[in-house]
Amino acid sequence: METPIINVEQLSKTYRVPVRAAGLKASLRSFIRPQYDDIAALRDVTFSIQSGEMVGLIGPNGAGKTTTLKLLSGLLHPSHGSVEVAGFIPWERRPAYLRTISMVLGNKSQMLWDIPPADSFRVLGEIYAVPQAEFHQTLDELVDLLDMRELLTKPVRNLSLGERMKCELTASLLYRPRVLFLDEPTLGLDVSVQLRLRRFLADYNRRSGVTVILTSHYMADVTALCPRVLLIHHGRLLFDGELAELARKMAPFKQIRLNLDTEKNNGDLPLPAGVDMVERDSNSLTLRVPRAESAGITARLLQTLPVVDLTVEDPPVESVIDQVYSGGEL
Amino acid sequence: MRALKLVGCFIRTSLQEEAAYRANFWISLFYSVLNLGSGVLGIVVLFGQVESVQGWTLPSTLALLGVYLCVTALRGLFIGPGLDSLAGMDGEIWSGTFDFTLLRPVNTQLLVSVRKWRLFSLADLLMAAAVLVTAVMMLGVTLTAWQVAAFILTLLAAVLILYAFLLAFAALVFWSPGVMFTWVFDGLFQLARYPMGMYPGWLQLVLTWVIPVGLITTVPAQALTGTISWAALAVSLGAALILVAAASILFRIGLRRYASASS
Amino acid sequence: MNLRSSWALVKGLWLSWLQYRSFFFILAFGWMIPPLIYMLVWYTAAGDQGLAGFTRGEFAAYYLVLILVNQITFAQTNWTVGDMIRTGQMNQILLRPIHPIMDAVAAEFAGKLVYLIFDVPIVALLALLLQPQMDFQALNGLLFIPALLMAWALRFFWGYWLALLAFWATRADALLTLQDTLMFLLAGQVAPVALLPGALQTAAIVLPFRSMVAFPVEVLTGRLNGTDLLTGFAIQAAWLAAAVILYRLVWTRGLRHYAAIGG
Fold this sequence. Notes:
The structure holds three protein chains of three kinds. By secondary structure, chain A is an alpha/beta fold. Chain A has helices at 24-32, 65-73, 95-98, 117-127, 132-146, 161-173, 191-208, 219-225, 243-250, 294-304, 317-325; strands at 6-18, 36-49, 54-58, 80-85, 101-105, 179-183, 211-215, 228-233, 236-241, 253-260, 276-281, 284-290, 307-313. Helices cover 78% and strands 0% of the residues of chain C. The interface between B and C is medium-sized, with 34 and 34 residues.
């Protein structure tokens, strides 16, 4: 086993936030003797990532995902613990380190607004000291993969959100970084663009071996791209492994969907014990049953209910995650 | 050198951005002419009523206006736009895109200082030069080599002092992101339109020792009109270097604060 | 439009503007600087003997009053009206049962109060330092009030109709900057109107700018004799009437145009 490209140990980050109460008296009081609250954004997070992996960082809003990315990229200093990325300590911000990593922020743009993307790319190439030949080759490759040749000469302010995100991805990969941090890259994009970008990321990861850490609120991004997820909640790392395994752990349930014969459906349905009804409408029924008993219960349902159609499936990832976010135990 | 190549790239890109808006050229020209006109008229009106104020006459005050316009033009040429895009109204710190700047493998202070150029300011520089030339002609003296050298040195010191102020005020934004510190400086800098000698004694002290805005225009004007001493020249250069160093340290502390306090 | 709802409007604006008081204080600071500079320059130029009929103290008094009058009459309409039209917020305001102009008026009360909180202590401090002199007559004090009110109304309506040009042009900036320069030269800032050279002085008396700022100041500081007072008030009233007529004209035309192009 080779050394991981990213090594994080006991990483913690606490903020001191001034307490500001309402009202004039409180303001004066806090001016004379300011009071602070300590907010723990991250607590003792430990993990390591091998070169070339694609890892999803998931968790509810405010869990500490963006804080983690910022600590890994050197934008923040930790309060405790150690981080090593590609052999560097991020917050030392050595130029050699900064040339090794790249970051895409979902709702923020690094492109120059009034001129075509080609010119922003040129400036970045200059800033990162990419040799001319290599720059053109990389740019061509990315432009082809993302199918954005016509966009290169339009001013950025005239581009749509999806087109701009393509530019952001290109900009971030121009100098062939070894690690790519993506913070909500598909935020606000329509479904077809999301699909294209996912395909691109998977493709690019395969070709170049870039290590990718991705945060996203769209579970589809994570399920499609990340064989491994890190679940962060209240600043702690609650889970590190495959998403499917998380689902199995969190939700040892199966979901059974039934379509009923409306003629024979008299409104009163005898359900076996241990079965929860998730949803019901005029001719269909969704039930949640313990995984171990799903086979037996399915048989009983077929006997007791006027079933026309029946499907047994895993519960949707979203509901699993929702359970975790709202405090479910692991 | 690589740094020069980088700056060249920035100049080229800034020119492209400026050229994207054609109307702006004429509007900017209009503003510059208005600014020049009102500055000159102010001096003309004052000296319409009096021959000299504390030793400053119309030509020498006009020379000082020329220095003011010159320094302002240089500020508008490169350091101003860069620092404004960091700490100004629609700046990076305000809109949250400063993280991108921090991720670049280039020294942050250098990057924000030279990355944006406003080439229109070259027109302002020309107008400032015209005012200076007019003032010198009105004075009726021929400039000695020493005067010219002293003038250039003090002008350089003036630009460095101005840079130090802008950098320091921009750094303050790391502590209080919503406050427009550069506007405060802009207000104070207006005081540099007139020679310090025209202000009451207590204000002169403030403008020399507390907020040395006065050093920026009065000293070069004195150099040009031949009334500067060796000591004043040395002090202004020394002050420039010290202030730039202090402002850079403040900026570095501000960066550290941003890195530990932002979320 | 009853008293209670207008008071509620003012109070609401007042509370929200107070939140951003550091922003507004910096603005007020910026507006105060030009008259402050000229005050200090004339003050120094007058010296012990006085200059052109003003003693040192009289220059100080003139400008200190000018700072306050300028602040009270300052037209915020470019933001409260112009920006609203440009950003499309005017649509919301047109739907209200209150005439849109009340919105701008309420903003005037709220804003001016916030700015004055900053200005008054500073003016008081400067008064202590400079010892202004004024020949105060009760009659002048009484006449000051209508002069100030008309000056405010004139500047408000003048600014309002200019801001309404936003209905047609997306950027009236150049026009406004031109007006600022004229205000600076002709409204008593660069020098009291009496000290302006020939042609400029006539222009100042005839154009509306002096009636907007300098006139009330001249009334209060007792610089005008009987005939001058009468002509001054007459010119002020005439310009106020013209401003209101222009406002109504541009408003009706503007609304039509705005509705025609879809708001």
